[in-house]
UniProtKB/TrEMBL annotation:
GO CC aspect terms: cytosol
Record gene name: purN_2
Residues the record marks as active site: 112
InterPro entries associated with the record: Formyl_transf_N, Formyl_transf_N_sf, GART, GART_AS
Name of this protein: Phosphoribosylglycinamide formyltransferase
Functional description taken from the UniProt entry: Catalyzes the transfer of a formyl group from 10-formyltetrahydrofolate to 5-phospho-ribosyl-glycinamide (GAR), producing 5-phospho-ribosyl-N-formylglycinamide (FGAR) and tetrahydrofolate.
Pfam families noted in UniProt: Formyl_trans_N
Source organism per UniProt: Zestomonas carbonaria
EC number: 2.1.2.2
């Protein structure tokens, strides 16, 4: 097994993707280790998930800081105390400053509930239905200064059903999020995944613009 890969997870809410990562890493056949979970909200249920798993859980309230730059500077200091190899955004509802993104370039992953580059931002399921899309899904990508615009690592594609609602679509997409995020973290921890000059690389080969596609 490769050397340990220290992971810090950032959350703002329930932490379902965090739980998927915790459950996956319990198998013990990956070098990834979640060193800490940090939330900008004290009421985030994901903090309880972390504590239940014996993972240090911390709160850094963004409202206590004068602006995004000050908060992100403090967040960097807090994260770096855990010497992370990888920082994972799991429902962290903050727009990050360019300084933060550059600090963790190549070791910052996010998951987004759409088939990027379609539907950056919010309300992705509603927008997919309104557009009449035949397919929808979710994407793991490296974070860059462009919102939801970094190189794609892996996408899960699901068919849109005739009777889908935003809620039913979200539920099915969540299932896929919980599959592909642990997969991407495993790849990174095993040093199979990296961000190269030409974008995301897996096993030394450039990934396609869509990332690795998984169809269900």
């Amino acid at each position: 097994m490769s050397a340990p890969c220290n992971v810090v997870v950032l959350i703002s809410g329930s932490g379902s993707n965090l739980q998927a990562l915790i459950d996956d890493l319990r198998a013990g056949d990956t070098p990834a280790r979640i060193q800490a979970v940090i939330s900008n909200r004290a009421d985030a249920y994901g903090l309880e998930r972390a504590r239940a798993a014996g993972i240090p859980a911390e709160v850094l309230d963004h409202k206590a800081f004068d602006g995004r730059e000050a908060f992100d500077a403090a967040l960097i200091e807090r994260i770096d105390g855990y010497r992370p190899d990888l920082v994972v955004l799991a429902g962290f509802m903050r727009i990050l400053t360019p300084t933060f993104v550059r600090h963790y370039q190549g070791r910052l992953l996010n998951i987004h509930p759409s088939l990027l580059p379609r539907y950056k931002g919010l309300h992705t399921h509603q927008r997919a239905l309104e557009a009449g899309d035949a397919e929808h899904g979710c994407s793991v990508h490296f974070v860059t200064e462009e919102l939801d615009g970094g190189p794609l690592v892996v996408q899960a594609v699901i068919p849109v059903q005739a009777d889908d609602t935003p809620e039913s679509l979200a539920k099915r997409v969540h299932v896929q999020e919980h599959r592909i995020y642990p997969l991407a973290v495993r790849w990174f921890a095993a040093r199979r995944l990296q961000l190269g000059e030409r974008g995301a690389m897996l096993d030394g080969q450039p990934l396609p613009a869509t990332g690795h596609l998984i169809r269900t």
